[in-house]
Amino acid sequence: MIYENKNQLKKGCARILEVDGSDIRILDEEKLKNKLIDDLIYTVVFSPDPATQAAASWLIRRAAAALGIMSASIQPLYEAMGQGDVKGFTVPAINIRGITYDVAQAVFRAAIKGRVGPVIFEIARSEINYTSQRPLEFACAVMAAAIKTGHQGPIFLQGDHFQINAKKFAADAAKETQTVKNLIWEAIEAGFYNIDIDTSTLVDLTKATVKEQQKVNYSLAAELTTMIRDLEPEGINVSVGGEIGEVGGKNSTIEELKVFMEGYGDELKKSGESLKGISKISIQTGTTHGGVPLADGSVAKVKIDFDVLEKLSQLARSQYGLAGAVQHGASTLPDEAFDKFPATGTAEIHLATGFQNIIYDSANFPPDLKEKIYEHLKNKMKDEWKEKDTAEQFIYKTRKKGFGLFKLELWHLPEDKRNKVCAELEKQFSFLFEKLKVNSTQDVLKKYIQPLDVPLEFPAALKAEATI
Q1: CA contacts within 13 A on the Cβ side of 121
Q2: 24 in the same domain as 157
Q3: What is the per-residue pLDDT across 16-50, written as a single tens digit (0 to 9) for each?
Q4: Cα radius of gyration (the chain)
Q5: Domain tally for the chain?
Q6: Residue 468 to residue 461: CA distance in whole angstroms
Q7: Residue 299 near residue 281 (C-beta atoms within 8 A)
Q8: Does one domain contain both 336 and 352?
Q9: Is the Cα torsion angle 39, 45, 49, 51 positive or negative in sign?
Q10: Which of 38, 186, 242, 371 has an alpha carbon within 20 to 30 A of 410's alpha carbon?
Q11: Percentage of the residues of the chain whose pLDDT score is greater than 70
Q12: Which domain holds residue 33?
């Protein structure tokens, strides 16, 4: 059910949740998990009334906190990795583009079965737009999924590729920078305590020296880091990531890492305060976001330079105390590649398109809806169809945008179909957790991460009455 106004919301929550001062008490946990949490998250996503949406999001976040589910920064764990106290696994960072509530449940089910500790849920700046998911909605969907599945403990929400658009920056640097700053503020307010700054788009390889090439990158990364430190809640150090090479470009080098870190450190010092810097560094090793589609729509095999990954990860830890290097664009790699990430000391791996492919290519995905999505893309997005691309290549590149355009239909897939698709995803999540060696890491996580309950502003729609 979708609550269309506050009165419906209050009636639906009666005898399940109760307002207690400026917080809530859970009166019936079983009813919360079995039905109410479904209604609350669908209200956040689809209610026509913004005040009711805001109230439902607050109820989800406070109910999660009451159950010991809190958004957290992965910073302390990454610091331990940087000191060599924790090693042997690679943290998966999962981008969920569509059907977020159900897909997140599949992640949690796989994590609970494997006693997995660190898993990051993330969404990129570009994904926020084409999947129609603002940070607060995304955070609530993940929190609701945690409640539904019985997960307890910290949740890591991450802003992935909070990226400066190079063309927009060239046209109006101040405006484009402010757009990213506004997004960072919005994300932190929503409980994103992990932010990947991506100013690598501004690296200029035509410059004569590596320092000149990286200067705008590290200077702006430091400026955004300083802003994040001003915004982060008291008691929380947001984990910040930097990037030295744009994914899909040339492979990163040791010199680039050194130049970036030294320049970035010098820029941070200009603030006059002792500020924590980045906790990890994203590099380019030969991958491309989403993979490279061939004429028949299949994905070309990619050769990752694991030697670069290993050397830069080791340098990042030994010289700068970072958790290590971060690998992007990895979800479409062959299965046999994933063992190598923990073996090379990779700190974090970003996974997105492979899960999108499982959804669309599943035999359980309704063929009539798929055809409807594909036809819409062909008719409405012809300007994105490159002359050299086959229809299969065009669809592969653009179908990610179907998650936003057909959001209502996707969230309302027949339950049996949705469950079967998510079972396929859960199987893949379990496989990846095993390969990345994050199974049986819950005790490690508990040792280093103690989530903090951050107060939330009480919603106007719930004021004036003690009982919902």
Answers
A1: 32
A2: no
A3: 999 988 899 999 999 999 999 999 999 999 999 99
A4: 22
A5: 2
A6: 10
A7: no
A8: yes
A9: positive
A10: 186
A11: 94
A12: 6-67
Quick one: tokens of 244? 């030295």
Q: Say yes or no: 62 and 101 in one domain.
A: no
Q: Which helix (H) or strand (E) holds 397?
A: helix 391-398
Q: From the centroid of its chain, how far is CA 222?
A: 21
| pTM of the predicted model as reported, rounded to 2 decimal places | 0.94
Is 269 within a domain?
yes
Residue 156 pairs with which residues in a beta bridge?
120
Question: Same domain for 154 and 287?
Answer: yes
* Span of 71-80, 89-98, 294-303, 445-454 with lowest mean pLDDT: 294-303
Residue that wins the pLDDT comparison between 282 and 250: 282
Taking the C-alpha atoms of residue 143 and residue 40, their distance in angstroms, rounded to an integer, is 11
Residue 32 gets which letter from DSSP? I
The CATH number that applies at residue 277 is: 3.20.20.70
Q: Is residue 392 part of a domain?
A: no
In a shared domain, residues 24 and 154: no
Res. 467: pLDDT tops 60: no
Q: Please give the full DSSP string across 246-271, using - where no structure is assigned.
A: -TTSSPP-HHHHHHHHHHHHHHHHTT
What are the tokens at 219? 């200077």
